[in-house]
Amino acid sequence: MTLLAVAHRAGNDLAALRTAVELGVDVLEADVKVRGPYLEVRHSKHLRPLPWMWDSGPDGLEWTHTRVPQLQLDALLEALEVGHPTLMLDLKGPGRVGAKVADVIHAREPQVPFLVCSRWWPGLDAFADRPWARPLLTARNRAELALLRRRVRGTHQPYGVSLHPSLLTPQVVAELRDAVELVMTWGVNDLGLLRRVVDLGVNGVISDSPEVLQAVLARR
User: Fold this and answer.
1) Is 157 buried (19+), middle (13-18) or exposed (0-12) by CB count in 10 A?
2) Is pTM beyond 0.90 here?
3) Taking the C-alpha atoms of 188, 193, 198 and 204 in order, what is their torsion angle to the nearest 10 degrees?
4) Mind listing the pLDDT tens digit for each residue in 148-158?
5) Domain coordinates of the chain in residue numbers?
């Protein structure tokens, strides 16, 4: 498989989506959360019980009032045109987010596959019988990695995995590459880290950096 260039959070904002499309990336990543009856495309977290959401940005913490309209999953799907890069949806939190997202996308009768990932793996069960879905298990720490390595040796293997760079070793990557189609890593925002993870054997790089994404594309 070609080394994939994945634009981190590019689907969370329609302007960022257009920029990533123009760059020529392979995959647009977007975060999806449930808030009431809505499927919101955002990474920000709700500071309950206060009416504020917060996120970490390049200039520190960013605050948004809950009354500010958020991008909805339906609107993101409407913005995707034929020929656009693959969309990867990162399901945030436990609960019904997986089932709700699966139903919304399935109703559109998708003709191209979607990547769907989550650290809360039960949320991916809703995609098990969806022919258009490519589920990926995400692991952030060593405990999650240990569970993931056992999981991919089972009978119901995921399409791929997404690991934090701190978990990558030659042995881990080789083992996972033998078990699944796609081994991705995220937060690769400098060229030195890019060289390291590519040398380890990953075949998907998730980045916020246009420079890194362009370097991935230049390897073709």
Assistant:
1) middle
2) yes
3) 0
4) 999 998 878 89
5) 4-37+72-218
